[in-house]
Amino acid sequence: MKKRPEPEIAxxxxxxxxxxxxxxxxxxxxxxxxxxxxxxxxxxxxxxxDGRIRYMASVDTFVLxxxxxxxxxxxxxxxxxxxxxxxxxxxxxxxxxxxxCHSSVADFRSNQWMEQEADEFAASLxxxxxxxxxxxxxxxxxxxxxSELCELAEKRLHTSxxxxxxxxxxxxxxxxxxxxxxxxxIKWAAHSEDMKRLGMGFIPFGTKIPAVAQTAKxxxxxxxxxxxxxxxxxxxxxxWYERPFYHKLLWEEAMPLGSTGIVLTYLTLKDPQE
Length: 274
Fold this sequence. Notes:
alpha+beta
């Protein structure tokens, strides 16, 4: 089956928010599940489990199981997981009604089309672009550094840092890229439209983090079992992009996501006013 276009997924999420009079942020995905009479089943599941929604035909009920917050798992990640499972409920209900289910991989970590659709639905449900841009403007009258995106995610939007950073990139508030890597290899990258216009709109997936990138320092520290603190510093555009039109320095920030081996890298123009 062909993956749905993003505008279609965003429109479906807006329908849900409008139906429950929730066109505001932060959005409470648990409240939406309760409105739909979906049974919530939080638990202390294993580290490899995010969530799963399943139709129980014997009682004509959908049950949404998810790994609860705590033990290094932030509340924003939990909210995104629940919103992801709601994506399956609203977009893939025919699949679920046939008794099918699987453990989801949420927060933009899967390359399967059904999981990608559920991730996009979750982002549109928790952070509709118009509301997201307003939230950023009310939070900062200027562009954001990575630590501020973390604060925005945790205190204003109640979302995961990965989804928030990606949404910031999609909102095209400034020229920026977000890179998601695991164990030193790039899983995916996203770029704002302004970044693409500067010739910095492609980073190949599956390749290693450039050895001279700031992020590589963090990856090496993690591999050596050292304390993995966030890193930041100047970077030449050619370190990350093959043919950039922009020849001044970039500012690179990178942070580990728990002890998963996953790193989030955030690239912006060092001085956009120059």
